[in-house]
Amino acid sequence: MTNKGILIVFSGPSGVGKGTVMKKFIDDKSLKLTFSISMTTRNIREGEQEGVNYFYVTKEEFENAIKEGKLLEYASFVGNYYGTPVDYVNKLLNEGRNVILEIETQGALQVMEKVPEALTIFLVPPSMKELERRIRGRKTESDEVIKARLNKAKEEMNLAGKYKYVVCNDDPDKAAKTISNIIKRSMG
Q1: Chain segment 71-99, per-residue pLDDT in tens
Q2: Long-range contacts from 137-144, C-beta under 8 angstroms, 24+ separation
Q3: Is 1 part of a structural domain of the chain?
Q4: C-alpha 186: how far from its chain's center?
């Protein structure tokens, strides 16, 4: 009999370094981590695979999943739906895997409501000034988009207190180690 895995919700504002930090702990076998695969109504892109990148469904199928309560969380973005299928996550958890959802605060709040025992971790920058420096440093977006991202980041930062753990990313190695330790403690 395997022990049930834990559901981990990982959020933080755009530019905080979620991907960088996660790369440093995701392959640690002792954490038994697995990414959840989302369901989407957007078209499959070249190089993507059904059941690997996403579960691709029609708008009608997605809306039925919403009505039937088959999603842990969902959101609409640029005319498409994205969401986390409950049955898929439960299957992984029942196999003893720890399932990590890297999702925005909107989805995270939905998960917290449905799964109050979920392990929730919010990654914050050392300061808003540093966050702005990181976003500008990418040199990929217009000033208008950067301002919009920073405004959204401020809104998201106000929700950090709803998470069980808030970790500062002043050093990605240190942040990853802190998160690994939080997950290990939660595993018992």
Answers
A1: 999 988 778 999 999 999 999 999 999 99
A2: 138/15
A3: no
A4: 18
Confidence of residue 161 (pLDDT cuts 50, 70, 90): very high
Cβ neighbour number for residue 151 with a 10 Å cutoff? 10
Q: How many domains does the chain have?
A: 1
- Tell me the residue range of the domain where 161 lies: 7-187
69: left (phi over 0), alpha (psi -120 to 50) or beta: left
The verdict on residue 117 lying in a domain is: yes
Instruction: Show the 3-state SS of the chain.
Output: CCCCCCEEEEECCCCCCHHHHHHCCCCCHHHCEEECCCEECCCCCCCCCECCCEEECCHHHHHHHHHCCCEEEEEEECCEEEEEEHHHHHHHHHCCCEEEEECCHHHHHHHHHHCCCCEEEEEECCCHHHHHHHHHHCCCCCHHHHHHHHHHHHHHHCCHHHCCEEEECCCHHHHHHHHHHHHHHHHC
Q: Calculate mean pLDDT across residues 1-14.
A: 88
CATH number for the domain that contains residue 82: 3.40.50.300
